[in-house]
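FW: tagging you since you asked about this chain on Friday. Here's the raw sequence from the shared folder, copied in full. Didn't touch anything.
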Amino acid sequence: MDSNFNSRDGEYNLAFKNLFHGKIMERASAARQIGHLKDGRATNLLVRALNSEEDPIVINRIIEAMGEIKDAKATMVIVELLKRELEKHETDQDKSLLFLIVESLMKIGDKRALEHLGILSRSCESDLKTFTEEAIECIDPEWKKNLVE
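HL: got it, structure written out here
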């Protein structure tokens, strides 16, 4: 068991080294690998990587990794990204990024995201609207009742 733990730790450390210092595809691959490890320790480092990353592909993989890890500490960081994207004109918004954000927030399941997803559920883009409504339903099956209260 000890050697398994050490090899996993080595894999974890190498993935973070690549995430911060690799070329674009190495960074994207490292983010995906970190997500697969599903280790809550990774959240703070992923947040740091997200804040310094400029490549859209790598940003997408980091958001996916945060969703895979399901740590609520990532919720508001992802929400901030959502808010920045929603400030853009609808034709300039990155739809694939918005889908990834919704998917990750749905996987994390933190109710603090609901208010922000509510804004997105009014989108004119029907696929995005439907997916966002599913995410809201998944995070809080009682959301309609809670609106009334």
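FW: The CA atoms of residues 43 and 59 lie 14 Å apart.
HL: agreed, and The chain has a mean pLDDT of 91.
FW: great, closing this out.
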